[in-house]
Amino acid sequence: MTPFDQARILHTALQELEVNKPILVGHSWSGLLTLIYALLYPQETSGLILLAPAMYKEGYPAEHGDPLSKLMTAPLIGDLFLRLFLMTPLAKAMADNMLQQTFAPEAVPGGYQERVRASWLRPSSLRANREDVLAFPPAAMEASKRYPEIKQPVIVLVGEEDPFGTKEQALRLQRDIPHAELQIIPRIAHMIPQLHPELVADAIRRIAEPAIACLPVENPYRIDYDIEGISK
Q1: 173-213 confidence digits (pLDDT tens)
Q2: Considering only CA atoms, which of 25, 7, 6, 5 is closest in space to residue 204?
Q3: CB-CB contact of 78 with 220 (8 Å)
Q4: CA distance 66 to 113
Q5: Which residues have CB under 8 Å from 54's CB, separation 6+?
Q6: Which residues have a Cβ under 8 Å from the Cβ of 170 and sit 6 or more positions away?
Q7: How far apart are CA 61 and CA 164, in angstroms?
Q8: C-alpha distance across the termini of the chain, in Å
């Protein structure tokens, strides 16, 4: 299930929901997914908002592969290893450590650790996570060659304290998409949607307002937008 596959599934879901020309918001790994969606459906995308995004193979943590992910996703032995691994204290320790690294130097919100353990520490969820890690580098290598084709509005938000090299990736994207608006925000890190939703809402608003102004007078919908987002 590559990022290209996931973009096609997302497009099908939005069509069934009768969501036309969405503004897509992608965080972290999903920065690549969001860009791929715009490449596959350029006439059906109003704009992109990329939050602490990963977009290029170079600089991605698993750029050269990941032995643990390969083991967990291997046929037969991978399922056995996953189930045995999740029975050990090491699994929770790994999840907690990853969580701390993902939020650092900011604090993990109350209750978030429990929700992560409940959802991430399941064989199917962990396997899918590891499959995504391995699928990223080849998909990013293929998609990044076409980033200059993207003409929709693009806003990129990255934290100055992000430990995952997203600032470098964002600066590279700005070279590939010169009209992309880049904001490097001081004193915040990687988990922008969870800790700074007001920044996300503001970015959505700034892309949405010109689109709303272009709606035909006879459009049957009234569109309201506020800090919570956009709704018809």
Answers
A1: 999 999 999 999 999 999 999 999 999 999 999 999 876 66
A2: 25
A3: no
A4: 24
A5: 28, 29, 31, 32, 60, 136, 140, 164, 166, 169
A6: 50, 53, 55, 156, 158, 182, 184
A7: 8
A8: 32
Q: How is residue 155 written in tokens?
A: 């806003």
pLDDT digits (tens, 9 = 90+) for 43-80: 999 999 999 999 999 999 888 888 989 999 999 899 99
**How many CB atoms are closer than 10 A to CB 144?**
19
CA 156 to CA 184: how far, in whole Å? 8
Which residues pair with residue 23 across a beta bridge?
Answer: 47
Q: Are strands 181-185 and 224-226 parallel, antiparallel or unpaired?
A: unpaired
Distance, C-alpha 170 to centroid of its chain? 13
DSSP class of 109: P
Residue 153's closest CA among 182, 132, 130? 182
Check residue 43 and report its DSSP letter. G
Rounded Cα distance, 52 and 55, in Å: 10
Domains of the chain from N-terminus onward: 3-231 (3.40.50.1820)
Question: Hey, which bits of the chain come out as E strands?
Answer: 23-27, 47-51, 154-159, 181-185, 224-226, 229-231
Judge contact between 44 and 20, C-beta under 8 A: yes
Task: Please tell me the distance from the alpha carbon of residue 1 to that of residue 133, in angstroms, as a whole number.
Answer: 11
Contact 160, 106 (CB under 8 A): no
Amino acid (1-letter code) at residue 74:
A
CB 192, CB 27: distance < 8 Å:
yes
